[in-house]
Structure formats: C-alpha cells, structure tokens
Specification:
The chain is an alpha+beta fold. The protein has one domain (2-92). The protein contains two helices and five strands, in the order E-E-E-E-H-E-H. It has helices spanning 49-63, 76-92; strands at residues 2-10, 13-23, 29-34, 40-46, 65-71. Strands 4-3-2-1-5 form a five-stranded antiparallel sheet, covered by helices on one side. Strand 1 (2-10) and strand 2 form a beta hairpin. It is globular, with a radius of gyration of 13 Å.
C-alpha cells in the first residue's frame, strides 16, 4: 500500500488530493482518490497496474492541471511513472 499527495490547479485555485494504491484480493489493484476532506472521489480497480495508472491519470487530468505529485520517498519509480502517464495524456489533448 502506498500513497501520493497530489496538487491540482483549476481556474487559479489549487486543491489537494490523496491517492492510495495497493494490491487487493486475487491480484487486483485498487486505487482510491480522496478529496481534502477525506471523502472518496474515485475508486479504480484493475487487473494490471498499467491499466490502473492510465485510468487514474486520465481522471486526475480531467479535474484540472496536475501541478505537483508527492509520493512516499521509496516509491520514486511509481511517482515518475504516474507523472509520465499524466504528461502523455496532457499531450494528447
């Protein structure tokens, strides 16, 4: 289980979100995006981590401009992977 703190800017307002991820039952990945107040914004479950990262990156970019991702320091690979996915999606639009 790991987490990210994500800052998203929309119309000059920056909001903070938290993304939790982990391996769930029967090798299913579960990612949950929370608002600042702790309410669940989006749950994503997939059979592959690649599929989940793509879906969560698409969701985050639909909220606004992702300006910062802070992850657990030992998870720099996942942080870079998520940043790359977001960058790829932004370039498609």
């Amino acid at each position: 289980m790991g987490y990210f703190h994500i800052s998203i800017q929309k119309e000059l307002e920056t909001r903070e979100y938290k993304l939790l991820y982990g391996l769930y039952i029967n090798s299913i990945w579960l990612l949950v995006v929370f608002k600042e107040d702790g309410t669940t914004l989006k749950e994503i479950s997939c059979s592959t981590l690649e599929e989940c990262w793509t879906e969560v990156a698409e969701f985050l970019t639909s909220i606004g401009d992702v300006i910062q991702i802070k992850g657990d320091p030992c998870e720099t690979l996942y942080t870079q992977y998520l940043e790359d996915k977001i960058h790829t999606i932004k370039n498609k639009h």
